Amino acid sequence: MQSIAIVDYGMGNVRSVQKAIEHVAPNDQVFLTDDKTLINEADRIVFPGQGAMGACMQALNEHDLVATIKQAAHEKPFLGICLGLQLLFDHSQENGGTHGLSILDGEVVHFPKTKLKIPHMGWNTVKHTVDHPMWQDIEDNARFYSVHSYYVQTADSSVIAGSTNYGIDFTCAVAQENMFAVQFHPEKSQHDGLQLLTNFVNWKA
């Protein structure tokens, strides 16, 4: 049995993430926590997030989790979800400008003004840009559920693992060594979302 810690800093849909992972990993220990020791001791880390990036960074600092998240992202299988992807980058335009965790190089920017509705909300296809264990048994251009007004512009194209088109092509998944993060919500994406979580639980990162 392995332990899977879902980082709970008060800014994510953590209960639905927990239930989805428990569904695909019924024999594992899956728990919500903001305890640094438990996060450090866990075998795998899930880093969800929803809402505004400025409020999320404030919550991470209030919970004294910044250094812990950075360490986990470099040392063990790590899955970022939604804002848990955006927070990995250097900076966001949101809230008048917000610094992220600077684990990856890049900027989080607002979707350009077009006739398309913002936020980008609902089902959209995800194109695999690399062959990765996290895409196992998920067809290229499978549909996942998203809700966001900002997207990442990575400074290093080698980390891009998936892209989606919403008026523009944008990065919706990144991968670097033991870390994988997605803009969409696997816990809300039915079969393919559960498959992605299954792949994470079994990933030999």
What does this 3D model show about the protein?
The chain is globular, with a radius of gyration of 16 Å. It contains six helices and 13 strands. The model has no long low-confidence stretch (mean pLDDT 95). The chain has 205 residues and is an alpha/beta fold. Helix 1 (14-24) packs across helix 6 (190-202). Strand 1, helix 1 and strand 2 form a beta-alpha-beta unit. It is 26% helix and 32% strand. It has a nine-stranded mixed beta sheet, sandwiched between helices. Strands 6-5-7-10 form a four-stranded mixed beta sheet, with helices on one face.
Features:
205 residues; alpha/beta; nine-stranded mixed beta sheet; four-stranded mixed beta sheet; 6 helices
Annotate the secondary structure layout.
Elements: E1 3-7, H1 14-24, E2 29-33, H2 36-41, E3 44-47, H3 53-62, H4 66-75, E4 78-81, H5 83-86, E5 91-92, E6 98-99, E7 106-110, E8 120-128, E9 142-148, E10 150-154, E11 160-165, E12 169-176, E13 179-182, H6 190-202
Parallel strand pairs: 1-2, 1-3, 3-4, 4-13, 5-7
Antiparallel strand pairs: 5-6, 7-10, 8-9, 8-11, 11-12, 12-13
